[in-house]
């Protein structure tokens, strides 16, 4: 039987996507430094994402060296044992990483939308994400008794038992997709209530829908997990699910960093990327305030939501592009001049 291997493909995809996601995170941090504003809660969350993604990259790369992407009968027994051990670590890291990425999107919504009820809803979804992370982390960490039986069961020399890891993976994927859909649906009502023309509202909604790609990848990963559940050639057939996992988390990170990166670019290149800004927000008295144009890095006292759209000459709406720009951080945000 000819030797087949997709290990090299997996390594290349892993390196490329991890590199892009890491660059996006540092670009986000740099943008906040450039505009003189640090958002400790949001940036701290993204720091956790960076740490977890680095661990995931290291462990999955080790799995590739151990034989991921090759037929199991071509992989030395000790390498299979090592790969199963790192697979257990990867599951724990992945369950937490995907949760913190979702929280990054939700914290971004907190920076943009001032409505108190809506913000309370966001905090509720954040709590659901945290609860999901804790529950699934404990479930996978102690799925086998003793824990080491997860990777030591193949030699027949150890005693223990394990729960249904496939059922756990399916459950997490299902819950994750539902939380993705909830997160995507959250800003629709807020955006539709903006004082904008319908086509501009649709433009803003399309900007927010970038995160839908991550949900699509999550569904593709679930399909790969279903195929993996029926296989005995685990080192070969797990590769597809592993690839989709890498793409899912890293694309999610990039999408979460895009608004901040644009904010930094507008600050650096105002003549190229500058725009005419219209601000809409609620005042303490419950009224709505519209403001004139302002710098993209400004922090307003009463303005929490800014809708920015580039205009062609002669104030034409045709071909304009709508974009939300975060202008208010949390109470622990800082700004320097």
Supply the key terms.
337 residues, disordered C terminus, alpha+beta, 4-stranded antiparallel beta sheet, 2 domains, 10 helices, Rhopdopsin 7-helix transmembrane proteins, two-stranded antiparallel ribbon, 11% strand
Shape: elongated
Fraction in helix: 55-70%
- Overall average residue pLDDT: 78
CATH level-3 fold name of the largest domain: Rhopdopsin 7-helix transmembrane proteins
Continuous helix count:
10
Oligomer: single chain
Biggest beta sheet summary: 4 strands, antiparallel
Which regions contain 5 or more consecutive residues with pLDDT less than 50? 275-337
- CATH class of the largest domain reads Mainly Alpha
- Report how far the terminal alpha carbons are from each other: 68 Å
Cα Rg = 23 Å
Strand order of the largest sheet: 5-4-6-7
| Percent of residues in beta strands | 5-15%
User: How many domains would you count in the coordinates?
Assistant: 2
Number of strands: 8
Helix vs. strand class: alpha+beta
What pattern of helices and strands is seen along the backbone?
HEHHHEHEHHHHHEEEEE
Tell me the layout of helices and strands.
Layout: H1 7-34, E1 37-38, H2 40-66, H3 77-112, H4 116-141, E2 144-145, H5 149-152, E3 161-162, H6 165-192, H7 198-208, H8 212-228, H9 234-268, H10 270-273, E4 276-282, E5 288-291, E6 306-312, E7 316-325, E8 334-335
Antiparallel strand pairs: 1-8, 2-3, 4-5, 4-6, 6-7
Helix pairs in contact: 1-2, 1-9, 2-3, 2-9, 3-4, 3-6, 3-9, 4-6, 6-7, 6-8, 8-9
Organism: Alternaria tenuissima
Protein name: Rhodopsin domain-containing protein
Pfam families: Fung_rhodopsin
């Amino acid at each position: 039987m000819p030797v087949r291997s997709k290990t090299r493909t997996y390594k290349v995809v892993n390196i490329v996507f991890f590199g892009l996601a890491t660059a996006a995170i540092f670009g986000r941090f740099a943008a906040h430094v450039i505009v003189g504003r640090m958002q400790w809660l949001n940036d701290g969350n993204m720091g956790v994402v960076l740490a977890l993604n680095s661990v995931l990259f290291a462990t999955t790369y080790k799995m590739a060296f151990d034989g991921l992407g090759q037929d199991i009968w071509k992989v030395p027994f000790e390498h299979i044992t090592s790969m199963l051990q790192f697979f257990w670590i990867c599951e724990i890291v992945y369950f937490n990483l995907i949760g913190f990425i979702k929280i990054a999107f939700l914290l971004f919504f907190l920076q943009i939308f001032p409505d108190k009820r809506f913000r309370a809803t966001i905090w509720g979804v954040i709590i659901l994400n945290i609860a999901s992370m804790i529950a699934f982390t404990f479930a996978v960490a102690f799925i086998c008794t003793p824990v080491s039986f997860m990777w030591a069961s193949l030699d027949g020399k150890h005693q223990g038992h394990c729960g249904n890891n496939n059922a756990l993976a399916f459950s997490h994927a299902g819950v994750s997709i539902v939380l993705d859909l909830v997160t995507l649906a959250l800003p629709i009502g807020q955006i539709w209530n903006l004082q904008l023309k319908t086509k501009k509202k649709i433009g803003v909604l399309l900007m927010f829908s970038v995160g839908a790609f991550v949900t699509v990848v999550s569904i593709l990963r679930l399909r790969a997990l279903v195929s993996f559940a029926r296989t005995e050639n685990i080192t070969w057939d797990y590769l597809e699910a592993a690839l989709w996992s890498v793409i899912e988390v890293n694309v999610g990170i990039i999408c979460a960093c895009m608004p901040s990166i644009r904010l930094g670019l507008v600050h650096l290149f105002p003549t190229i990327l500058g725009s005419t800004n219209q601000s809409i927000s609620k005042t303490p008295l419950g009224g709505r305030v519209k403001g004139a144009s302002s710098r993209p890095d400004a922090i307003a006292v009463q303005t929490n939501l800014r809708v920015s759209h580039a205009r062609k000459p002669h104030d034409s709406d045709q071909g304009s592009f709508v974009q939300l720009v975060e202008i208010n951080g949390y109470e622990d945000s800082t700004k320097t001049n």
